Amino acid sequence: MIRRSHIAVVERNAWWRGDFEVEPYEAGWALEAIGFLHVLETEGESPGIDLRVQISSDGIHWADHGAALRGSLDPGVHFVSVAHFGSWLRVVGCTTGGLKVIFSWDLK
Questions:
Q1: Cβ neighbour number for residue 12 with a 10 Å cutoff
Q2: pLDDT by residue (tens digit) across 10-25?
Q3: Cα–Cα dist 34/65, whole Å
């Protein structure tokens, strides 16, 4: 069997300042997901992030998965891996300073 893969860009050139929440993405067919965070620009001194992956069976009620990305971020690509999730994925969190980002799910 040939595995399917899909890349879903859910944020493009968005500024994250303070609290953020991305649109939920339905991915129940996938066995694994990697969330790629491409930091394009930063503002403020040592901008940081507390990003949490959340999962849901219905896209309405959410629970923290445990996968997270925390700390100071420089421009570049960062990622978080997720396995054993329900039908829906999203990321939520907060930033110190500002981050201009592209966020995408790589699903297989």
A1: 11
A2: 999 999 999 999 999 9
A3: 13
